[in-house]
Backbone:
């Protein structure tokens, strides 16, 4: 295992040429590429992209990395300050216009704060009568559902990991299963930054992208559940802790009542679009399920109506700040696009056999996701656009996005990994080692599927 961990940086180094042959400009679908420079300059204009990747790998903040690459591109490509300013200002509002992810993330965070997920875990523990493998399965399902609704893997893990540790201890397979479920859910969630980036770069509606990926999301979540159950059975896990005084005083009926906002939100996010399509109007659209969920929080939990509304507003902070950050980063990427760097790259990429393009991008995304896992949105901005320009389907773009997500789940700098390390009270190095086997296996399966599914 240690030898394999030591080889990952070398694999990443080998992936840089592959990635550079697979990147295109980070513009929305339909925009024209800048003309490719000729001769030696066709290579020179790619240097700012290489600089950004190297800085991200070294854990430099993505905005500093983007600024360094953007300034270098201005110098090499003769981009004026006026042009750069225009591109910069256009990129930020394009990301902040992702209204549905912002709304969904805010609502799900409000449900978190009201204690809905804690109540659900407690209720299940009471009902399974010592069957720790069933508890392990439910923990993964709860982590997946919470991440899918909120779009925030780290935020979900911060709440659920300590509860899981208190219930069954630090089972390595359970931790890996939570990571796999987290990765596949935040990369295909209707509320996530990553889905917003996919939509912005490709021009695909988020709802369409999410619907196309739902089957694959479910597949990997079920695989993760299987891994968790296997780990609990193999290690003969037992319940390790007791309920808190507050929870112990609550009846099963009270606990079920507290979980109703979470149950309704999950139903609205998954089934709502189908109902809306049948009736021809957004009967369970964002407005309706926002109002109903906030009302349920006020009715079913200890939160007052004022606290419920405040939790909704506060819940938007995480997603808004990250959309703003990625918007700034995309502004710098667009400056690089003006030099013709991406046109040069696509001319090379078009020479590759079409059957290899999707698996190659999945592999490149996974390998870059390992060292740069703290910046999944920025990695997507570098990796995804080739699929847009070569006509990848939403599913193919989704495979690449999941690949980056899997890579982030063996990253020392990823926030979900940090949350799991804290919640399960283990060094993050142990979390990475425990995840490597299972997350890599999930990535291999994703590569195999990407060869066959279009």
Residues:
């Amino acid at each position: 295992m240690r030898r394999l961990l030591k080889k990952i940086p070398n694999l990443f180094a080998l992936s840089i040429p592959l990635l550079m042959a697979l990147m295109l400009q980070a513009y929305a679908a339909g925009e024209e590429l800048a003309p490719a420079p000729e001769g030696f300059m066709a290579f020179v204009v790619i240097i700012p992209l290489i600089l950004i990747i190297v800085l991200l790998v070294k854990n430099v903040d993505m905005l500093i990395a983007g600024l360094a690459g953007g300034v270098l591109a201005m110098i090499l490509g003769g981009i004026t300050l006026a042009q750069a300013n225009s591109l910069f200002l256009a990129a930020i509002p394009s990301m902040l216009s992702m209204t549905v992810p912002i709304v969904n993330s805010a609502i799900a965070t409000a449900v978190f704060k009201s204690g809905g997920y804690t109540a659900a875990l407690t209720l299940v523990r009471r009902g399974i009568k010592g069957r720790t493998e069933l508890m392990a399965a439910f923990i993964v399902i709860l982590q997946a559902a919470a991440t899918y609704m909120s779009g925030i893997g780290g935020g979900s893990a911060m709440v659920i990991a300590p509860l899981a540790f208190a219930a069954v201890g630090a089972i390595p397979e359970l931790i890996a299963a939570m990571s796999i479920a987290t990765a596949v859910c935040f990369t295909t969630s209707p509320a996530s930054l990553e889905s917003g980036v996919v939509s912005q770069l490709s021009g695909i509606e988020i709802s369409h992208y999410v619907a196309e990926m739902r089957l694959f999301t479910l597949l990997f979540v079920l695989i993760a559940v299987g891994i968790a159950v296997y780990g609990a059975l193999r290690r003969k896990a037992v319940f390790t802790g007791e309920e808190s005084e507050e929870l112990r005083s609550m009846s099963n009926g009270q606990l079920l009542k507290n979980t109703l906002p979470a149950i309704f939100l999950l139903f609205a996010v998954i089934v709502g679009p189908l109902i809306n399509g049948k009736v021809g109007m957004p009967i369970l659209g964002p407005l309706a399920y926002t109002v109903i969920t906030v009302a349920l929080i006020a009715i079913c939990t200890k939160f007052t109506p004022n606290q419920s509304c405040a939790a909704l507003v506060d819940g938007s902070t995480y997603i808004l700040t990250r959309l703003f950050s990625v918007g700034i980063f995309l502004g710098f990427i667009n400056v690089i696009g003006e030099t013709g760097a991406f046109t040069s790259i696509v001319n090379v990429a078009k020479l590759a056999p079409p059957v290899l393009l999707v698996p190659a991008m999945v592999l490149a995304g996974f390998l870059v996701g390992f060292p740069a896992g703290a910046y999944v949105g920025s990695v997507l901005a570098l990796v995804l656009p080739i699929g847009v320009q070569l006509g990848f389907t939403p599913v193919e773009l989704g495979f690449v996005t999941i690949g980056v997500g899997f890579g982030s789940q063996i990253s020392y700098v990823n926030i979900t990994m940090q949350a799991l390390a804290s919640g399960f009270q283990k060094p993050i190095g142990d979390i990475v080692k425990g995840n490597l086997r299972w997350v890599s296996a999930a990535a291999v399966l994703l590569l195999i599927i990407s060869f066959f599914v279009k």
